[in-house]
């Protein structure tokens, strides 16, 4: 997916605005866009950024054990 940056937006903010999360996504976006990190922390207005496809399925429920009642 290709997304256009807003003036002064960071890659984290772009990932959050578009995908609703940043955990793991920002790193993948940096891999998909070589040279993006060298440009500085803020993206230029209108800069196109390739974002990774993410799995939107609900996370699996983990059973837990309560040690104290």
SSE topology:
Elements: E1 2-4, H1 11-19, H2 25-32, E2 48-50
Antiparallel strand pairs: 1-2
Structural class: alpha+beta
Question: What is the CA-CA span between the terminal residues?
Answer: 48 Å
| Range of helix content | 10-25%
Q: SSE string, helix = H, strand = E?
A: EHHE
Please, what is the oligomeric state? single chain
Strand order, largest beta sheet:
1-2
Characterize the main sheet: 2 strands, antiparallel
Query: What are the segments in which pLDDT stays under 50 over at least 5 consecutive residues?
Result: none
Q: Which whole number gives the mean pLDDT?
A: 87
DSSP strand (E) fraction? 5-15%
Please tell me what the overall shape is.
Answer: elongated
Counted beta strands: 2
Alpha plus pi helix count: 2
Radius of gyration based on Cα positions: 16 Å
Note down, in words, how this protein is organized.
The chain is of the alpha+beta class. It is built from 2 helices and 2 strands. It has a two-stranded antiparallel ribbon. It starts with a strand and ends in a 19-residue tail after the last strand.
């Amino acid at each position: 997916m290709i997304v256009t940056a807003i003036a002064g937006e960071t890659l984290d903010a772009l990932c959050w605005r578009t995908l609703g999360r940043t955990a793991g996504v920002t790193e993948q976006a940096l891999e998909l866009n070589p040279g993006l990190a060298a440009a500085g922390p803020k993206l230029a207005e209108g800069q196109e950024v390739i974002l990774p496809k993410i799995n939107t399925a609900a996370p699996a429920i983990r059973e837990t054990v309560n040690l104290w009642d």
